Amino acid sequence: MPDWIKIATADELADGETKLIEVEDYFLVLARVDGQFYCIDDECTHDGGPLGEGDIEGFCVICPRHGARFDVRDGRAVTMPATQATGSYEVKVEGGEVYVRLP
Amino acid sequence: METDTFRAMLATVTERATGFDRDAFEAFLQRRGEPAWLADFRRAAFDTFASLDLPSRKHEEWMRTDIRRFHLERYTPLPGGDQAAHGALPAARLAAGVQVGGSVLSLDGQCVTSALDEDLAAQGVLCGPIADLAGPHEDLLRPRLMTRAFDPAYDKFAALHAAFFGGAVIYVPPGVEIKKPLLIQNVLGEGGFDAGHQLIILGEGAAATVLSETASLTPGGDGFHCGGVELLVGKRARLRYVNLQNWGSGVWHFAHQKARLAEDAALQWTLGALGARLAKVNQQVALVGPGARSQVNGAMFTEGTQHLAYHTLQHHEAPNTRSDFLYKAALQDKSRTVWRGMIKVEPAAQRTDGYQRNDNLLLTPDARADSIPGLEIQADDVRCTHGATTGRVDDELIFYCQSRGFTRREAVRAIVTGFFQQIFDRITIESVREALGLAIAQRVREYE
Hints:
Chain A has 103 residues and is mainly beta. Chain A contains no helices and nine strands. Chain A binds chain B through residues 3, 5-6, 22-25, 27, 47-50, 65, and chain B through 1-3, 6, 57, 63-64, 66, 68-69, 336, 368, 370.
């Protein structure tokens, strides 16, 4: 059973902000929307490059290079040029700390 | 894994290596004991290295190749053990069943053995470690070492290489034709560092075949290779150069490789890539003299989460030059290849004939091949052709084979072999054809 790994504190991010997290071999984008935390791979499935520096609009992170959008709730590719979902991971908040579950 | 355990593990790794700081460099320089001209060259390169950052992902060459997981400080140019006393290195696949005329073998960047047939030495052929030849052959080497075919300031990896390189020199005097191939082999131990350089110089009218192979002591071995290859092919000289990258699956491989061809020179350059966790190679051929011609053959077969990236250039600088480039890659599992190729034709290079093609065979749905050809043509009487194909294995072909009694695996193996056949047909060295064919066939697995 994979463990929960602490990656941030709940007050580190405000609503509408993202943070790049490096844990084990994963690069992840942690996003906070409407008080909830979500976590997806820091990888745009269009060109394989990072999403980390992209803006977030509603539930979507926007890839800074070509504008592909990914829903932070499930990693789904919402617009071209991306057509495949990026990875998404379960997140929980306990005792003011944010944990992610990696496979 | 518990975060604390992970942190403790990371701390242990960084304690062990010394990285590439100035202290490590000075200690490294001490150990080499080379002539002043070479030490000065290294110092200048180290200054450049220290002043540069690792390449940013915004750079064209690094956009598709993520090296955030690469940690320079985990490796050291000062290996702990005595490499020379290691004993027999794994046999080179390219040289199976072949008598070589000379060889330079190294482990973790230290030369272990080198040899050269007496009759070749008598003709003035040189084949040995740079450290041994730099002193007695300064006149030959100093004007050519990383002056025309390697730029130490190109990026941080090039500068690191120019500061910490070891490696081999092969020199074939004018008019000398060597029938037996010469072998350069670089091996990495677990977590080792290799900055092997190859400086291969063919005088006017000379001919030679050079086989270069890399390997790791353990199949999944970690390691760091920062390499450079310079092929200087003189007027009317003919070089067949074969480069097989067969590191363990944990090795980080960065290389700048370039050939310069003089008037009427001919080069056949064959590359095979099977290993490494991540490879980023700049492979270039400059046709500097009129009538020069090159043929480049690349065969890649990736698996797991390997990432192999090649940035290639066929640079036509003179008229009546011909370049013929074919890279073929077969990909399995979730592996990835990137090919960014360019044919560049200068205004003076009229009647250039340039051909560039990349074919990719995806054996699984998660594999990915990025294929980006390019042409930059400034002359108006040329022929330049380029093409790229990428596709999955045709299920009907597999079914057809199965209906004829093949198992699925045999069918895929036949298809993969057929895919690479065009490359094999272009390789004129029997032992290399067989070695590559065997290595590729062994890699084919069962697929859904």
